[in-house]
Design brief:
The structure holds 2 protein chains of 2 kinds. Chain A is mainly β. Chain A is built from no helices and 11 strands. In chain A, strands 2, 4, 5, 6, 9, 10 and 11 form a 7-stranded mixed beta sheet that branches. Chain A starts with a strand and ends with a strand. Helix content of chain B is about 0%, strand content about 50%. Chain B is built from no helices and 12 strands. In chain B, the strands form 3 sheets. In chain B, strands 2, 5, 6, 10, 11 and 12 form a 6-stranded mixed beta sheet that branches. Classes of the chains: A mainly beta, B mainly beta. The interface between A and B is medium-sized, with 30 and 28 residues.
């Protein structure tokens, strides 16, 4: 597709279950980001990928959170043993490679809304 | 690390009135500044950015923002708003030139334009 695609758009799960959130970035975008948007909060940085490697995963809130990216394209964010405080909208964004031509624009998906009961 | 403050969580305004959405950031080192907009039921999209050069930057739909280094601000303005400007606006800062591996976002300002 032309834009960043995220799935599922909505996920309701029970506390303690594992969830996987998927992001399909714009073709050719080597950088991929995950952010979390909680009610009334700004966007919280989680992790950034350059290609398949994650040079910055400093924003992952706990070891229950992990992410991977394969083939320099699709990324999956996994949350194990979900807690109620994990409820939020998880946003994925992609951008071009870091060169002088990169104007720094992030292209966002519409997000995956996670509700943990 | 940077922090970004958007003091106004909601701004109600009547159509055709002027508006200013405030954004302040924490550090005065070299920064790269952005405003993103999120229309209802859509993803965030870039509205305008400051990377270097003129401190006044404009968007295609009439918004402008001015980089003020001494006040560490990047306020967003529009002289006359339309109903279609109703959206949530996020200010963002990066302190890495051409290495935007980490953006710091504010908490957002919901602009509600009333007829």
């Amino acid at each position: 597709g032309a834009g960043v695609s995220q799935s599922p758009s909505n996920k309701v799960t029970e506390k303690g279950k594992d969830v996987e959130l998927r992001c399909d970035p714009i073709s050719g975008h080597t950088a991929l980001y995950w952010y979390r948007q909680s009610l009334g909060q700004g966007l919280e940085f989680l992790i950034y990928f350059q290609g398949n490697s994650a040079p910055d995963k400093s924003g992952l809130p706990s070891d229950r959170f992990s992410a991977e990216r394969t083939g320099g394209s699709v990324s999956t964010l996994t949350i194990q043993r979900t807690q109620q405080e994990d409820s939020a909208v998880y946003l994925c964004a992609s951008s071009l490679a870091f060169t002088g031509a990169n104007t720094g624009e992030l292209f966002f998906g519409e997000g995956s809304r996670l509700t943990v009961l | 690390a940077q922090s970004v403050t958007q003091l106004d969580s909601q701004v109600p305004v009547f159509e055709e009135a002027p508006v200013e959405l405030r954004c302040n950031y924490s550090s005065s080192v070299s920064v790269y500044l952005f405003w993103y907009v999120q229309y209802p039921n859509q993803g965030l999209q870039l509205l305008l950015k400051y990377l270097s050069g003129s401190t006044l930057v404009e968007s295609i739909n009439g918004f402008e923002a001015e980089f003020n280094k001494s006040q560490t601000s990047f306020h967003l303005r529009k002289p006359s708003v339309h109903i279609s400007d109703t959206a949530e606006y996020f200010c963002a800062v990066s302190d890495h030139p051409y290495n935007f591996n980490k953006f710091y976002f504010g908490s957002g300002t919901k602009l509600n334009v009333k007829p």
